């Protein structure tokens, strides 16, 4: 009996990233960029920390303009994020692609990555470092939205604001979540450019 392996043409293989994930990913990238840049402009006008952000990295010009951008993109970010989260949970994608994560696997994959030995042959499976980073940034995104709500409606959502200490603490939590997302993005975009096949898969699915 013959056991020859038959190569399935790429167009007949299941997509690595389904359409819902690709569309929500790129809408999220746009919304996050607007949120981060307008948020930094708001920070410059009304700082919570003694740091001034260069104008080139900000959006909106002045406090009123930046706030309008921030509140407009907020609906896009939250609505799109809910679709991505619901899809990830209901389809089982999060469980399949992001779990399990063990400290041992993260350390082993980190060691391999730093010594250039980590393979990228199979783009349909995330390594442990990717799983940790993706799960981490999803949680940081949730924290950014929750702390944003806490400082947007501190009276109506007083319980949420109190959960973060007080109004100023909620602002610090909001800033920290943004800083975590920006740190993730520096690594994430660099990796996407280093492995262009992964970028293509996030655009066309394969
Ligand atoms: C220009 C900016 C961005 C580029 C070029 C980019 C690129 C990519 C690529 C290529 C992948 C697939 C990775 C792989 O298959 O190994 C991916 C996945 C992912 N990206 Fe991005 N990304 C960007 C912005 C963002 C932003 C702003 C976030 C969140 C703050 C984000 C979060 C994620 C997550 C969570 C995944 C995993 C998605 C899943 O499988 O469900 N990305 N990105």
Description:
Helix 1 (19-45) runs antiparallel to helix 2. The protein has 2 domains: 15-47 and 54-97; 100-206, no CATH class. The mean pLDDT is 94. The protein has helices at 19-45, 63-90, 93-98, 103-114, 128-152, 158-163, 167-194, 196-204. By secondary structure, the chain is an all-alpha fold. Protoporphyrin IX containing FE is lined by residues 21, 25, 28-29, 32, 97, 123, 134, 137-138, 141, 181, 185, 188-189, 192, 198-199, 201-202.
User: How far from one another are the termini?
Assistant: 33 Å
Amount of beta strand: under 5%
Number of strand segments:
0
Give, in order, the helices and strands. HHHHHHHH
Q: Helical segment tally?
A: 8
Overall geometry comes to elongated
**Structural class, judged by helices and strands?**
mainly alpha
In angstroms, what is the radius of gyration? 20 Å
Count of discrete domains:
2
Bound molecules: protoporphyrin IX containing FE
Helical residue percent band: 55-70%
Mean pLDDT: 94
Largest sheet: none
Uncertain runs are none
Secondary structure layout plus pairing:
Blueprint: H1 19-45, H2 63-90, H3 93-98, H4 103-114, H5 128-152, H6 158-163, H7 167-194, H8 196-204
Helix pairs in contact: 1-2, 5-7
This protein binds protoporphyrin IX containing FE.
Residues 21, 25, 28-29, 32, 97, 123, 134, 137-138, 141, 181, 185, 188-189, 192, 198-199, 201-202 line the site of protoporphyrin IX containing FE (HEM).
